[in-house]
Amino acid sequence: MTSNYKRPQRMRTQRERKKPNLQSKKKLDKNVAVAKNLPLSSKLVYIDMKRGKDAELVEEHLIKLGARVEAFLTADINYVISSFGPSKVEDVQKCSDENPNSPINSVASPFSCIPSPSAPGAAAAESKKSAVSRGKALAHLARSKHKTSTVVTNAEKMGVKVISVEGLYYDSY
């Protein structure tokens, strides 16, 4: 018959408990030495991606390169890695403002062709302003009302370098 009796383990003395493990100390020293030579050591990175295998893979690679991955976007961050890339909204608006013959401004809206019956003088001034399509005008109005901003635009406002995931992989090869 077997018994369920467990033999009590020997109590360690205080001196035995405090004895350092020399092998683990050597490993720690080696890791510290290696960490100083890593390309992203002392860099803070924020990952703006949907959680999944790709995000975990990117996070693992960054940690292996010595980066510290932060959970929140702050001004201390050095790099933002995003699946969306740098924002292009401002570039499109600059191009359309500079070039009046651009295709963005030349698209006529069916609502801008007919003058408004309410004020004949206001229709001429309004038609000059409304060279933008109705959809773009609604999108601009929604952006200005709600003042929503993405992580990428916030990072650009703070002066943080934004790197797209595609750019990250293309630059490495």
TrEMBL record:
Q: Where is this region: Disordered?
A: 1-27
Which is one Gene Ontology cellular component term of this protein? Dbf4-dependent protein kinase complex
Tell me the GO BP annotations in alphabetical order: positive regulation of nuclear cell cycle DNA replication; regulation of cell cycle phase transition
Question: Which residue stretches does the UniProt record annotate as biased composition, category Basic residues?
Answer: 7-27
List the GO molecular function terms. protein serine/threonine kinase activator activity
Q: Which domain of life is it from?
A: Eukaryota
Q: What is this protein called?
A: Protein DBF4 homolog A
Q: Look up and give the organism this protein is from.
A: Elysia marginata
